[in-house]
């Protein structure tokens, strides 16, 4: 197994990148739909995923007491 695969930062950065792609996609699609409830669902989903992305960043940076 490559040392990169054992480095937690490799995985947290990949997850943050994938989450950001999904966040961007959701926010772009808000402009493509007319239904207000779906717009709200897309925005809510983007916000939730952004919180998860932040949690990965905090884990990586060890700046939250839970990750120390």
Task: Explain this structure.
The protein is mostly helical and 68 residues long. It has one domain (11-61). 78% of the residues lie in helices and 0% in strands. The protein has helices at residues 3-6, 8-30, 36-61. Helix 2 packs antiparallel against helix 3. The two termini are 26 Å apart.
Mean pLDDT: 91
Structural class: mainly alpha
Order of helices and strands: HHH
Give the overall silhouette: elongated
Number of strands: 0
Secondary-structure blueprint:
Elements: H1 3-6, H2 8-30, H3 36-61
Short précis:
The protein is mostly helical. 78% of the residues lie in helices and 0% in strands. It has one domain.
